[in-house]
Queue: 3 jobs
Job 1
Amino acid sequence: MELQGKRIVLGVTGGIAAYKAAELLRLLAKQGAEVQVAMTEGATHFVTPTTFQALSGKPVFTDQWDARMPNAMAHIDLSRQADLILVAPASADFLARTVHGLADDLLATMVLARDCPLLVAPAMNRQMWENPATQRNVAQLRADGIGILGPASGEQACGEVGAGRMLEPEEILEEVIAFFTPKLLASKRVLITAGPTFEAIDPVRGITNLSSGRMGYALARAARQAGAAVTLVSGPVGFAAPQGVDRIDVRSALEMHAAVMARASLSDIFIGVAAVADYRVANAAGHKLKKDMGGIPPIELVENPDILAEVAALPGGPFCVGFAAESRNLEEYAQAKRRKKNIPLIAGNLIQDGFGGDDNRLVLFDDKGTHPLTPAPKSELARQLIEHIADLTGTD
Ligand code: C5P
């Protein structure tokens, strides 16, 4: 529940993307937000207020002369109760009216009368988006401190292809969560490794570690939401990069090492979450090994570089954070790793507590001692770890 207790006015304006606002409302509510919908007259031609009323559990406002507010001041009352006004989709006409401070319908009046931030997710035909008038309006809205989410590029409802599509509801949700996250790592550059590495034996076989990559991806997301510029060096995992995170795909430990070392000195914080294979195959075969090649093929192993220890040894290098996944003696092993690699902070977990799953139990070890975190979903643990890192690096 990443939006627990947040009060959001969702403004819906006239455009075909209005149907996606219903899904957005559902996603916001699922994260605990209390959502009040206000629609323009145009929006009601695409989706009915009943849809939003059913999903939000609240009456929907469309008319500035609505008699339901006893004081006839819906435009003031609704926006005063809000932590955020989010307009999605925001039509070209709505942007233009907002730039000029028009108050010719309920939503526009609320926006003008608001004392809370405003985020808009534009959605329109590509020509309308590219039109200098719209571009001027968007630049002015930005200058006025209004957050512009997207738009995305791609195929449009009209059949044309270009910029102007509304961001997907999941993407807007991510931006809203980021909006409410304290910017503890503002302007910090964070480099993270995640997932397993894969060390080839031949073109189709290899040695790897079990690692879902979930914790590393959750940390990349939490760091970005805290305002950092995040680069994620990822071994082979099956999911997409978090929004706004620069992802570099690697396979072997040597590739991961090269990608990290090329960027480590430019980073403020390095978090090694990847389960890096300790050894690689020295005599990897260029062609597939065949069973009838005679005998069991010998596999010769050589040690991989310890990426975290190397980054920690860089003069003037980033603040380094390690992970220790252990099957027993967590404190003893994690502390030993912290000393050996010479890093200020290590996050330890017992493999049986969270491997591969969504939840985990983490214990943080630093110079001040041991800090057990309450067992929680990885997204929540990631947020707490980022807070701890911000504390230690004195960035809040
Ligand atoms: O040495 P060990 O694998 O137990 O330590 C785990 C920590 O070290 C993790 O943070 C992992 O990402 C990092 N590590 C690394 N390069 C290696 C091995 C581990 O960066 N070759």
Job 2
Amino acid sequence: MKSNPLLLGLCFSLPCLLASAKDYLISTNQTSLLIKADQGQMSSIQYYGSRIDAKDISSVYDAGQAFWSNSYPAFGLHSWGEKAIEVVLPDGNMSLDLVVDQVKEYTSSDARITEVILKDKVYPFVVKQFYKAYKGTDVISTWVEIVNNGDKPVVLNQFASAYIPVRRGDNWLTHFHGNWGDECIMEEEKLTNGQKVISNKSAPRNAHSDNPSIMVSLDGQPREEVGHVIGGTLAWAGNYDIRLDATNNDLNIIAGINEDSSRYILDPGRSLTTPEWAMTYSESGKGGVSRAFHRWARSYKLNRGHVTRDILLNSWEGVYFKVNQAGMEQMMKDIAAMGGELFVMDDGWFGNKYPRNDGSSSLGDWVVCKEKLPKGLDGLIQSAQANKIKFGIWIEPEMANTKSELFERHPEWVLSQSNRPLSTGRGGTQVILDLTNPAVQDFVFGVVDNLMTTCPQIAYIKWDANCGIMNYGSHYLPADKQSHIYIEYHKGLQKVLERIRAKYPNLVIQACASGGGRVNYGLLPYFDEFWTSDNTDALQRVYMQWGTSHFYPAIAMGSHVSANKNHQTGRVVPLKFRFDVAMSGRLGMEIQPKDMSAEDKIFATQAIAAYKKVRPIVQFGDLYRLISPHDNLGLASLMYATPELNRAVLFAYKTSHFVNQNIPVVRLTGVDPDKYYKIEDLTPAKADKKCSLHGKIISGKVLKETGLKLPLKGEYSSLALELTAQP
Ligand code: GLA
């Protein structure tokens, strides 16, 4: 079927209803998605790939490259196989016959949106499919709004956000599997026929077991800077399901909320909006996918993504629950002396009737423990001000302990079942609040609002969530809507976060959930950053941060220098290696400074100063992953570069150590071959012992094609080098 280029031209100049247009080309700078939507017919995806123009559409069809793939296949009619939607209509009919009613195209402040409205041929049931091309990025997202226009409830058994065809060939899947303390570990595998499902059922921490983000390569084993790769992420913080359905000739990605235990009843006149599935298409391998997502995140999916992040000291590994006035004041003085900009008081500061001394009490009682902090938060803020640093605080506002005044007052605010004993989490007493309940939403908003009203100087909040939904029961939702808990919990949480952001747009908030349990684009728009993992071991972080970097930018990746030996692994690693790893993300410290030697404090002060110098390159630059730790070459390396390629930072970490070991050459893909770069050692082990590359001026051509032989000798050798293009 050929399109009419004249008609297409018209579509793009008129932000109006265009029921007669058939081919809708949705484009970013480098990518295009082609939808075919004829009135009264099914809507289909015909193409997703490198950018094409209206004049190329007929070639897509003529070359036999059109997919003809139903954009939202419904159960019960026309075909077999995987579907996007399955319902039970009021008369028991389980089929839908969705056809195009109309197509709208319009521009919002951040995007160009194409809305395809599908209607059932017989029943008053509507599915609005949205395609959003974000301005200035290469990300297109899609989601649906499902509307029941009838006068009786409709049951939704399946309600995907996206059903995306992928060109079948030598497809490989990259995904990010993990666990507590071992988050986001890259896995790559060839997609054979059958189904591969990446899913999660650990709400509200959905990123520990597997991140809701995947890459699919179209032409063999995925590589960093070459090859055609689709990347996609589900912007949802709850249970999710990403299904890759492959046969000899077809491959489809079906992504959305995980419908298991989440049958949704749509009352008359009500609608359900599914989360965005955001995707990009890269001609330059996985690196291209990552850079596209990082830019999108900084522009649209991160609170204040264009503002540099402070260098902080977080108190957790330094004192754990043993918070007191003198201890906090000493830590503030120490981090300020090393050049830090922010101090965050972690867990252990609250509760009066039940002071928080371990994980078994006090969550919900968000009042300062007078015994531990007699001068209150004001006293701490004054100390921070005297040290010329900012002050931040830890909370876990969605939670309670059964040993808390909150639980004594409101046992009905907790997700639980009245006729069964409570299952509890951390400390044997932790439970989760019922965020489906508007009164609970008010309370959770109030936790932040009260803190900020009484202490407006608070600059940073670490928002933790250390418990899953272990008691599936809401005292707020009616009996017939108990299956909505997983979904309504997150909608409730989003409402709270929207209120917080409306009132406190500049407050820095970190998303933490037992480490990296909430690294997803469902929550990140409300947050400034995330805690990557509770595991701060620098060597294991090389792997975790490698995986995390595939979809999430360095500016958001909390990365802290911690004690020697490391508290999680017991590994002993030089301070330089620990800094070089932490400096590749949002640098911070998670240590007791009073236990550091004078020599280590001098090193830390110099490294912090060096980070400040290159911070804009790390936090706003483009990432190029150079040597993967998973290739077992004994070396991992990555770099950040400005878009103009005039400044860059190179990081390299020796990941194993043997006699007569061959250290691979590192080819710097993020440089301009026509420029010359001066190299500066950012973190010399001793100020007067810079590495042998320091001060050298090397051509971009050599750096990129021939590569650098890095002077990495001892165990846990590492380098952080700045490259500056010479005028
Ligand atoms: C979680 C977080 C840690 C720390 C503790 C405090 O485990 O991930 O960083 O804040 O809670 O209890």
Job 3
Amino acid sequence: MDEDSISKKDIYDVIIIGGGPAGLTAGIYTTRARLSTILIEKLAIGGQVSITDRIENYPGFLGGVSGPELVHNIEEQAKSFGMRTLSGVVTRIDLSDEGNIKRVFVDDEPEPYRCLSIIIAAGNEQKRLGVPGEKEFTGKGVSYCATCDGAFFRDLDIAVVGGGDVALEEAVFLTRFARKIYIIHRRDRLRATKILQERVFSNNKIELILDSVVDEIFGQTAVDGVKVRNLKTGEGKRLEVKGVFVFIGWTPSLSFVGDIVKRSEDGYVMVDREMRTSREGIFACGDCCKKNLRQIVTACGDGATAAYSAQHYAERIKGEEYV
Ligand code: NAP
């Protein structure tokens, strides 16, 4: 559907903010409920999954499925039921007037999009290390995406920072290209799922550097290495690597939300079991919510629940609720 046909004059039943698996699944459900729905995404549709090489634990795909293929299919599925997408950065939500109508501002446009209900599915942003050299060498050896940049490091030595699922999965993926990979992790054991740990332990291209942090990324015009410090002994050393992949977790990307809904101390949206936020008519789903398990399958489940709640809310406002 052409973006130009998304009018600011209409009042949409639902605006979904974020086009990862949670938002897209919400779109499948709201459009099948015949709610007028637009989904706004600031980057590429698919979010984090679209840069994930292989997903092994999404049910129904024996042997796994590629991330881009999975999200492409979910997007097409939602569009086939009538979901429309808009590319832009949501900057603000305004609840101040027009009764139940909520206003969503995009980019620097003065005129907002209007709707009855909002589903926040904005996902997370990758955390930065915050050490000298990281910013300077981003795109010159420092990367946050193995699928995008792995092939630049053919037969070179590289470092992966982090001990979670993403760090280990991507380290194994990077062994297709790199000669040697150091995984640098700040604790004496890894956080990642055991099956991923087994793959790392049995891969002779990977060397673990535990109890250690990166103090600096150095180089001339591009990365030449990292300074690593052992937290137990205080001993420092330099590793000569041409690439540094940083996978140290995520923080919610919710600057547009401010304090209009209740958030946890670490910034996630607080939701109940029906994915309702503290504000009537605003729902949230996926990785931006406070919860323990952040997986594609849980994001999709959240998306379906948020859509169901939004449906009942919008139908109640319109006097159409089936009770
Ligand atoms: P994560 O599970 O939060 O792990 C982040 C890792 O980075 C942790 O080991 C953490 O150390 C380390 N870390 C955090 N801040 C650091 C810092 N400032 N300096 C050095 N190290 C730091 O994040 P993730 O690996 O990105 O995974 C995110 C979520 O996606 C998880 O819920 C994960 O299960 C899910 N996921 C699942 C799959 C899958 O199941 N196939 C694939 C990808 C992602 P500590 O351990 O000391 O905290």
